Known about the structure:
Order of helices and strands: EHEEHEHEHEEHEEEHEEHEHHHHH
CATH architecture of the largest domain: 3-Layer(aba) Sandwich
Strand content: 15-25%
Radius of gyration: 21 Å
Strand order of the largest sheet: 3-2-1-4-5-6-11
CATH topology of the largest domain: Rossmann fold
Number of domains: 2
Oligomer: single chain
Amino acid sequence: MKVLFIGGTGNLSSACSELAISRGIDLYHLNRGKSAGIYDIKGAKTIIADIRNFDESREALKDYQFDAVVDFIAFEPEHISTDIKLFTGKTNQFIFISSASVYQTPPEKLPVTENTPVENPFWEYSRKKIACEDRLQEEYRKNGFPYTIIRPSHTYGKTLFPLIGGYTVLHRMIQGLPVVVHGDGTSVWTFTHHKDFAVGLVGLLGNKDAINEAFHITSDEWLTWNGIYNIFAGELGITPHLVHIPSDIIVKYDTVIGDGLLGDKAHSMIFDNTKIRTFVPEFNPVIPFREGVKEIVKWYKENTLQLKPDEHINNLMDRLISDLNNSRLENHS
Length: 333
């Protein structure tokens, strides 16, 4: 099977690349070739082109035909329109990496299934992903464009520190400084290791029954945010100082972080993975978050402790905590 990944060296695509190659798939990456990224993918062939440059990509792809194409870096409907023009007649399956944040937020009921309504009034990122999905569905209805939609939810690897504020949170924990946790920390969340995610995605490559279908691919492990922070602290061998602040207050201080909370992480989200298991029976997440945290902490100690913490994140947390201590949060505008 001949497959093209648009991207190929990021958090999601690297794990999928490694698994695809191990299974004998003839894998190509389409990217600018300027950086191999953190992950060194051996065995993939690289087609040099900028997917945002239509003419350049069309020229680079003119002699290729693929059984499946996966776009890991489409975020707006215009990106999908370009994909449709590039790959109509050149692939038997086009897979779009969407996001589980497209689901109704907050959900009326749990667990979330693929039949949960798609609507997110809080986060522009999610609304753009929904518009991408709509564009694909429209093209399928009109012209039979063979799409499959994948919706990951907070998929991580060793290089992706999955707490708000990134590796700066790790620095603060190690230094004994307080860190901000949204809400009261009791909402339930789902993290998925990228190697577990890869089993689901690679299992769908070339599956004709997956055309005109959407799937989320997530872990079955559910953790509270307090528990998540405590797992990190336990791996660091420290007692964390967690400061709980409502998400609707955080958004007043930082709209980018706040919108991501209100549009995603502020609400409990657990998923029913029956559908992906039906299509890919071997999908069975096996890496618990506690083991993933060991990888993350080891990598960050080796690669980021020499870096300065993010000044914006540090200042944001300090301001939030200071205003909370001075009882000014409710009056902040």
